[in-house]
Amino acid sequence: MPHTVPCLRRILVLEGPLTIYTATERRDLLLELFPLAEEVEMDLGSVDELDTAGLQLLVLAKQESIRQGRTLILSNHSAAVLEAFDLSGLHRYFDEAGTAAVQRG
Question: pLDDT tens digit string along 45-71?
Answer without folding.
Answer: 999 999 999 999 999 999 999 999 999
